[in-house]
Amino acid sequence: MRDFKATRAPEPNAKGLKLRVQLLFGLFLLLLGVAFGRAVQLQVFEQEKLRGMAQDQYVRQIEIPARRGDIFDRRGAPLAQSVEVDSIWVDPSMLPDVRQSARAMAKVLKMDAEELTARLTRAKRFAWVKRQAKPQEVAAVKDLGLPGLGFTKEPKRFYPQRELGAHVVGTVGLDGKGLEGLELAFEDELSGQNSRMSGFRDAKGRKLLVQGALDPLQRQGAAVTLTLDRHLQYVAEKSLAKAVEDAKGVAGMVVALDPKTGELLALANYPRFNPNTPESSSRAGMRNRAALDTFEPGSTLKPLVVATALDQKAITSESVFFCENGAWRVGRHTINDHGSHGWLAPRDILRTSSNICMAKMAQVLGREKMVAGYHAFGFAERTGLSLPGEGRGVIPFPKAEVSLATQSFGQGMTATAVQIAAGIGALANDGVLMRPYLVSKVVDPDGVVLLENRPTEVRRAVSAKVAREVVGMLESVVGKGGTATRAFMEEYRVAGKTGTAQKADPVARGYSDKRIGSFVGMVPAEDPRIVILVVVDEPKTDVYGGFVAAPAFKEIATAAMAHLAVPPSRTAAPGGVVAAASSAPAAAKPVAKATEPVRPVLVEADSESPDLGTVRVPDVQGAGGREAVVKLLAAALEPQVQGSGRVVSQTPAAGSLVEKGARVTLELAARQ
């Protein structure tokens, strides 16, 4: 049998095997070279890039929000502060049942369950449950024992005075940014600078702080100090609310300022709102009407026209005008008075608030001079209160005779409440207009003053003689036969003016049947310390400012005189006789009959000070702190207390002659 295997030619195995080995060796060598090259590339050329990518997986730059700066009143009482509160978040991927967990959290937090469920469903690893939660809410969520919950501290804005000054201070949003008022106007200064610091995160994505806590001052905003006085602000808001509610009005405003400095001591609005719960108020309800809104003032501007006419020598205090017995035809229009009057001098024109005689006075004064007079008193220009959206007002040039007439008694033009108070304040300040201001100073955490406002003269509106003359005329407005007898004060001389303005109807392009009742006055008239404007919008029980606004003025003025420690204009003399400071001797009067009640006799009050603007510092050495403060306030001085216990030294010394309102520093120490 033939063996085929023995006869088959041998295959070249050795040569092929050698070739395959060489190919495999070359392939492995190539792969090793590629791996080595890749390693070199990663370790040498891309080292920094890869290190950064690795750190991004476990290191995070954590942003620490800055603590918002505080807002204070003039005496250091806090109006707005920031506190650290807990915000609740969750990792939805760690929840066993997102829908059930959301319902449980919504129940204890009193939130909408469906909205929370939708929010957690959309998120993967992080979702806010509730920002700036209350302590009891945080405790309730912790008690649920849900996995993936987290709590982080965030600054929350808190307003300790609640509604007090809310329209001025404003509000912030959930992100801590200012939305209204000074919170918005000083956003950059109050917000401060957010800080960033490195931190690890674990496998579950939780942040672990690896650096020490930052200095709180490094992440705190500047502090803002206002000119507002918390006590006067409270009285103003309380009196305004009562006035508007009694008159069944829709809104109201109060402006109280120091005519000598321009400082706004109170700026009140009605309706009020609580900035701690801004969601319960409308955006319109948060609006600071007193500083931002413009309206037609009405008769409160008549004193300014009279002062301008006297200063321009267009009239004298003895000039008389015929008031047409209550009705006067000007072109196609008829101007009416509230009563029937004949010939009246400027004093009686203001006392009776005659529109007709004011219109005739404007004709004598002339268009250009009347408009220039309004501008001199600060109208049609912003006062610069640092509030966004502050109103400017307009004074159209009165081309028509009826426009000249209406502008003479404050119609056909617009102004803000602050402008009106500042204009009347110029009369109270001997004719010098002061720039009204609301912010006293802004100081950053390390004590650097970023902004400081000081009393600033804008211009002289009228001469001092004319200003004092018009103020004397305005005293008759609150006297017998005047339009504001309800503003009369027993112990202080008051000068003021009522206003009852028609409200414009922009749709009908005319005037509606709605009114604005107002009263602006200064007290004490012989040396005004405060100017107060009260405005009631759309009163329904009575439309006249002397009825709806004057009583609120009296309440605020009474509290202000006590708070500012202003000596009375009228004091009680021995035997119950009323003593009054008067610039002119009383005219002789017939002796009263025996059957008639004897009326108090007005005599000039004695003054211990050589000058009306100065007082002597009382001796409070050894007195207790509270007793010393009361004595200084009663002497119209401002106490500054250092230490506690009893007074061991005072500066200036007892008996020194100083200006009213001067600061007296008291050093107190406890008995050894």
UniProtKB/TrEMBL annotation:
Residues 613-670 form the PASTA domain. CDD domains: PASTA_Pbp2x-like_2. The keyword DNA repair does not apply. It comes from the Bacteria. This is Transpeptidase family protein. The keyword Ion transport does not apply. PANTHER family: PEPTIDOGLYCAN D,D-TRANSPEPTIDASE, PEPTIDOGLYCAN D,D-TRANSPEPTIDASE FTSI. It is found in: Membrane. The lineage of its organism: Bacteria, Pseudomonadati, Myxococcota, Myxococcia, Myxococcales. It comes from Myxococcus landrumensis. Keywords: Carboxypeptidase, Hydrolase, Membrane, Protease. PROSITE patterns: PASTA.
